[in-house]
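Kindly review these tokens for lecture notes.

. . .
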Amino acid sequence: MIRIGIVGYGNIGRGVEKAVRAAEDMELVAVFTRRDPAAVALESGSVPVLSVDEAEHMTDAIDVMVLCGGSATDLAEQGPYFASMFNTVDSFDTHARIPEYLAAVNACAKETTAVISTGWDPGLFSMMRALFEAVLPAGATYTFWGKGVSQGHSDAIRRVPGVAHAVQYTIPREEAIAQVRSGAMPELTTRDKHLRHCLVVAEPGADKAAITEAITSMPHYFAEYDTIVDFIEMDELLEKHSAMPHGGMVVRSGKTQDNTQSIEFSLALESNPEFTASVMVAYARAAVRMADEKLFGAKTVFDVPLSYLSPRAHEELVKDLL
């Protein structure tokens, strides 16, 4: 059995707990939190909840630690720290900072395997972009997200001073999708492809103009997009915007010698965090297998053999799926 630890028990942490319970080759050993452990109630009632400070004493009890913190602040510290002691998997999703994050984690993962930036984008979509480009080298790749709730962007808003709660919807522009599917291979900026809609609950007395400016000028998250910030009441946000759907697609349009070709991969999610957690748990399995082979250091989805994600034997995969 692969022994799993979870760091952080928010939406993704709860999703990881469910995915591990559903996996026949895994068991959940402990959940680690920065909150008061006594205040955290798990669905897996017999699993201990411990202070994150206790993790360093459990290196012999856990095969892989699944890091469920946010990319804005948590993982920049937690990724390198835990990779120095455990095999790890995370969902770091600030695309522009992935190279520096990879280097920071790699510097600490001397005798461990740390698979970074898993999930669906980065993650599965990253794999599709690489595959499609290899198959159709003469062409252009386009990625669209939504309509749906972005966990990373919502988390980034909630860290703005004066924000009590927030949800961010990523909305693809239909006219851009139509252009891409036509095979026209247009040149599109991030602003051309998506709109970001932020629903914000402000703290009492907070400066809403300052909050709006902080959000719309935030690099890597909102500065590059047309961003709408609307302020609503907490009751409305909780009643109408508590679900976390999402989705998206990767499209490659290109030409072979004589013909126009197109490849598309899409997904539609009722629960973004549960799906992301399921991807992370599959990569947790791969991290353990790679560590067993002493393939240490920080890895990305490009470095992980596809068969390592599956609980099935290689012979079964060849027989049933190839």
Notes: The two ends are 27 Å apart (CA to CA). The chain has a mean pLDDT of 96. The CA atoms of residues 59 and 306 lie 27 Å apart. The first strand starts at residue 2 and ends at 7.
